[in-house]
Amino acid sequence: MSWDDDPALFELTGKKFTHGDEKVWWNNLIRDRSRLAFAIINNDGGLIGDVELQQILWRAREAEIRISIGDKEYWNHGFGSEALEEAVFAAFHLLSLERVYLRVRVDNVRAIRSYQKVGFRAVARLAATGHLAGHTELQLMEITRARYAPLPARA
Ligand SMILES: CC(C)(COP(=O)(O)OP(=O)(O)OC[C@H]1O[C@@H](n2cnc3c(N)ncnc32)[C@H](O)[C@@H]1OP(=O)(O)O)[C@@H](O)C(=O)NCCC(=O)NCCS
User: Higher pLDDT residue, 69 or 155?
Assistant: First the structure.
């Protein structure tokens, strides 16, 4: 909830909760078969963010991915790329999806770099909507099961 109120994060990810509805968010999350979320934890087990497969289309075998490390102290230490890799692995090898895509601000170079490290590639530019409309464009990126190369440790 406190990360959700951070204006810097809002600019990058938008808002997840509106005040007071975290239980609604949680109940929706655990019941919704088109969403699967994972906590991102530091080396001591503390919560630092979350990564979520959403808009899962089981017949089309695709999903959108969203990630946010709320605790800025943990930006640029590889946690994001590792969490993405875990979630993409789960998408392809546990859920049998074929494609995972995401949308990111074109000026969010840290996020784009972490997506590239996992194997996402840019496929299109999109106009931003909502609170970002007119301020930036979004990069559509995707990774397919065919192009995904698991980390050597998994091979
Ligand atoms: C985006 C996010 C998940 C990435 O996770 P992370 O743990 O910070 O990223 P990583 O450390 O795995 O990788 C970041 C990479 O970007 C690079 N980078 C960071 N700032 C950069 C900059 N200004 N220019 C170029 N590269 C930059 C880092 O050097 C690193 O690349 P390297 O490993 O090749 O050196 C995380 O920073 C985050 O949650 N940010 C806030 C919310 C957000 O932007 N979410 C995504 C919305 S689409």
Answer: 69
What topology is assigned to 3-154 in CATH?
Aminopeptidase (3.40.630)
In the prediction, which pLDDT does 104 show?
97
By CB atoms closer than 10 A (0-12, 13-18, 19+), residue 24 is exposed
79 C-alpha to ligand 1 centroid (Å)? 9
**Is ligand 1 within 6 A of the CB of residue 150?**
no
Residue ranges covered by each domain of the chain: 3-154
Nearest CA to ligand 1 atom 42: 68
What's the predicted TM-score (pTM) here?
0.94
- For residue 145, report the phi and psi dihedrals to the nearest 5 degrees: -60, -35
**Is it the case that residue 91 has pLDDT exceeding 80?**
yes
The yes-or-no verdict on residue 18 having pLDDT over 80 is no
Query: Could you tell which of 114, 118, 138 is best to mutate to test the pocket of ligand 1, judged by most ligand atoms within 8 Å of the CB?
Result: 114
Closest alpha carbon to 99 in 53, 67, 39? 53
